[in-house]
Amino acid sequence: MLLELRAVSRRFGGLLAVSDLSMTVVSGSIHGLIGPNGAGKSTVFNLITGVLPVTSGEVWFKNERISGLRSSEICRRGIARTFQATALFREYTVLQNVLVGAHLLAAPGLAPTLFWSGTYRDRERQARERGRALLESLGLGAVGSQVAGQLPHRDQKALALAMALATGAELVILDEPLAGLTDQEKSETIAVLRRLREQRLTVLLVEHDMKAVMGVCDTVTVLDHGVRIAEGTPREIQANPAVIEAYLGAEEPSA
Amino acid sequence: MVLIALAIIVLPLLTRDSYYLDVATTILMNLTLTMSFRLQVSTGQINMAHISFMGIGAYTSALLVTRLGFSFWATLWIGALTAALLAVPIGSVALRVSGPYYFLITFAFSEVVRLFFNNFFENLFGGPSGLVGIPKPDRVLGMTFNGKLALYWLMAVICAVVVVALVRLDYSRFGLTAGAIRQADLVVETLGVNVFRFKLTTFVVGSFVAGVAGVFFAHYRQVLHSSDFGLEPMVLLVVFTVIGGTGSVWGPVVGTILMTVASELLRELHHYEILVFGAVLILTMLFAPEGLVALPGGARRLLRKLRGRAAEPAGAGVAP
Hints:
The structure holds two protein chains of two kinds. Chain A has helices spanning 41-48, 71-77, 94-101, 103-106, 110-114, 118-137, 153-166, 183-198, 210-216, 234-239, 241-247, and strands at 3-12, 15-25, 30-34, 56-61, 64-65, 79-81, 171-175, 202-206, 219-224, 227-232. Chain A is α/β, with parallel strands linked by helices. Classes of the chains: A alpha/beta, B mainly alpha.
């Protein structure tokens, strides 16, 4: 297995936002994390990526403990993420955004940079080519030189994913990748996720669109009030009485 | 860049007047400072202690030369390295916080340094009456540095190296990451860049350059006062940089040249000069918040907008 949470808890003052959560994400799968509003899903993402420290418990990735490391170090180990409120470098062009993401793969060092050496130019050219190819594959090929802050919502979402992929991550964590998209755009994004799985990437996502989650995920974990109440295949989850109970009055999981 | 290089080379051919050479040398010295200050601003840090690292370089070199007989050519490096070394612990503390807290911590530090030079070890730093009797740079490779012209050339070489290196950095991946940190530091961190270490690197490199400028300053003016590294010159440094524009690496170049010349023209005003600068800063913030270098682009956009509006049929843009 690729990612493992071992009895992870996170406390905010008197509130236990995540309580004793254990879950595993299998390599090469699409894993959904669902739950009603305030269930602690985004907090779990912040704990995995080191944006917030865990109060107790451990996070393991590829048989190494990553809880306690800086976010940048966790990214170096192979985990990249997007944010719920799409976070971009709004003043930069689309290609520049992706190049910042490619920092890890292409950082040429101080001396080659200062002396504008052949190594530097080669690395930079390669990074640009890779960046353009990545944008092309996510349907952003035509907008590479546009300013990111002025892109339509759909393209901003795709760009956030492109930046995460540019790091060369093995596990990408997506916070509501479908939020605010039209049905047409949703199915395009889902197709992209399936393609990533074919390329042996692992995806962990939080999403409110139950139809999409049940359609694309291999495994689903359900959180309620910071506690894991169920985990299994979409079919198992939909039949689970605890899940139906948690969602009563909110949104009913539907096939 | 080519234009500036030409100006630097042509100027001494036009005039040997020591006043003009002095102004030109001051511009180059200020430019070295504003460029290294802007390196830190590019990641979003306003380091109010930048001038202190210039002071650390200046006093280190002045003391090593006057007390221990070191050569200027050794202390140029030693002074700058001392500034850079002290920047490591100071930056490590200050960069734990950001925004206004960072501003306040670095400001407090700069006052500590100034008061230290003013009030402690008076037999070393000269106290309120200053440290005097600092010699000009000594002979090296058959070159002497007694005249204004030679010192001008020395400063020009130092400044050229600094400007070329910092412009190069700004146009590289390094500058790209710095700007990204300014826009959304958390995102940069989750994309694998250790933001703390990156900011600390800019802090230390900036302090090294400020140290170099300080060493030159000490042996150029030949006398040091703690107030040379106090709040007023620091504020001027900020004003120079901000008026030019911090968004572009050329901002400090434009700001420094214009404002150093303005400062000379306003010399008669003495301490009221800073009032004029304050007013200029406010006007810049109001009418060109991205600095003077952003004006041509802004004017172009405005013109296009005006033309676009003129082309629209009359009344089309009027809301009821």
